[in-house]
Prior knowledge:
Structural class: alpha+beta
Oligomer: single chain
Order of helices and strands: EEHEEEHEEEEEEHEEEHEEE
Strand content: over 45%
Number of strands: 17
Largest sheet: 8 strands, mixed, barrel
Number of helices: 4
Low-confidence stretches: none
Amino acid sequence: MHFTKAHAYGNDFLYVEAQAVRNASLPALARELCNRHTGVGADGLIVFTRTADGASMRLFNADGSVAEVSGNGVRGLGALLLRDDDRDSAQLTIETDAGSKRLTRTGRSQSRQTFRAAMGLPRDLRQVPILAAGEPLQAVAMDFGNPQCVVLGELPADDRFQRLGPALERHPLFHEGTNVEFAVVEAPVRIRIRIWERGVGPTQSSGTGSCAALIAAASYGGAARDAEIVAPGGAQRVEWRDDSVYLTGWAEVVFDGDWRRDLP
């Protein structure tokens, strides 16, 4: 089976064309491939089919669970599809379980391609009191194509992060689990985050998490609706416009490979 690895800001994915794995158990394949010791290593597996204007995709987290969408994963797929395309401002539409995501390539430098992606608008945005790992919190919850929970305030130290991340991910309030971001507003146009991703754990970056952090901080934390979101893996720009939330950042293809094991 042929695969490609790509990442955006350290949030890494493996990409496989659907026809190559049509008879495989995709959750089991994701667990094998994404294992960082006995597999290739990644935060998730994206199985895709090329279309006339881009691709359709399904995303499986490293633990084999299904996720609706990933902003960084969508951009990585865009970088794969356009790596041999030299057109300026090339555009793609990626169909996901959370709807269509429109990508416009805005720049290219060596192996990295920069995209501005229309990611949609939040739904069911609200503040909620939560008791997690014995600690009372005020969180911001929303549906951003996938479930998001943002805790505004000082970023947690490692031990608190390791306690609260999984407790919030699996909190009974979120029936299908949730992605978790801890976010501090350093300035109206600069927000710093730590990420605990559903089905993965700590990640270096998250596209939808960056969008959710901006939405939460602009709604309840005094941030602007156009800001730089700084994750451990680097900074992305998020713009909350009337028609969509736009995510701008880079992705790069790392390598192609062949998986030699039998498919599960």
